[in-house]
Amino acid sequence: MTNEIVHSADTGMAWGVKSSFRRYLSAMPGSQTEVQPGSGVTAAGDIFFTLADVTSFDLGSRSGSIRFRGGVKFTGHSGLLQVSIMHPSITIDASSSVLVVEAPSGHGSLELAALDMGHHVIDGDVLMWPDVRTSLSEAACFLFNDVYPPGEPLDPITVRVPAAPPTASAVS
Ligand code: HEM
Question: Which residues of the chain have pLDDT under 50?
C-alpha cells in the first residue's frame, strides 16, 4: 500500500477490514490494495477513512449517521477478485448499528456489517468508540465470493468524532 500514514487520533474511522482476507491477498502474487483519496493507512496498518459529515448524528443521544471519505480497493487473481469498500458510513441506533458502503455498481448502498458499538470514551475533544465488534451482513456475503457466512466476524472498527457539535466550516 502506498499512502501517507495518518495520526491515529484524527477524527474518522480506522478499520483493518478482515485481517485473514488481507493475509490471503498479501500471499497472492500480483494482488493490490489501493487506498483511495480521502483515506490513508494508520501506523498499525489499518485503513483510515477521514470524517466527512456528522450533521446527521446527534451527540446528545449518540445516535444517527456518520459519513466517512475515501475507500480501499482490493484486487487479485488477475482481476477476478475485486472488492471495493467505498465511502463508508455508520448508523448508530440503540437497538442496532450498521456499517454501510457504496454498492459495487456505484449506485445506492450496501449494508456491509452489523456493529456492536460497546462502550464509548470521551478523550479530550473527541468522542471515540474503540474496537467496535463487526460481523458480516448477509447482504454483503457476495462481496467476498460467499466464502464467509453471514455473521462472520470482521476486524474491529475504531471511530472518532468531535465531542462538540460541528461548526459550519467543519462540514462538507
Ligand atoms: C481464481 C479463482 C479463485 C481461486 C483459485 C481462489 C482460491 C482460494 C483459496 C485456495 C483460498 C484458501 C486460502 C487459504 O486458506 O489460505 C481462498 C480463500 C478466499 N478467497 Fe479465493 N479464490 C478465487 C477467487 C476468489 C474471489 C473472486 C474472491 C472474491 C472476493 C475470493 C475470496 C476469497 C476469500 C474471502 C477467502 C478467505 C480468505 C480468509 O479469510 O482466509 N476468492 N481462495
Answer: 2, 7-8, 172
